[in-house]
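Hi Y.,

Following your request, here is the sequence exactly as I used it, all 125 residues.
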Amino acid sequence: MGEPVRLALHHTSSSLRWMPDLIAAQGRQVVLIDCKSRMTSRASRWHVIERAAVTAHLQLVAWTQLPLYYVFDNLDLLTPYDTLSYGQEGPRTTAGSGTPYLLVPAGQSMPFANVFGRPGRLLAA
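Below is the corresponding structure, written out as tokens. Let me know if you'd prefer a different format.
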């Protein structure tokens, strides 16, 4: 999706606003990946995900019947279901987008290697 479309979608409530960053495959396994760069607090070790994104991703998983993973900078993984199950509402803030978000303890995430194997020999995007 081009940058002009992405910017225009940012001002809508369409679920397309939260399309995953990658569609990846290894053999016949296809997964959706949403990269979450700078979305983990180094001090508290909580992952942060917008609630609206989780809702859109749960609908996308149901529609496509493909797994979706949030991949954080440290290669922790969460699914939208994990995020909804383990997450708690974050405090309201005017920083960033100001939208409601969920905080998930990093200890609830899965290691990248448990799902995809060693980094570097996994999926072709």
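The radius of gyration is 15 Å.

Thanks again,
Q.
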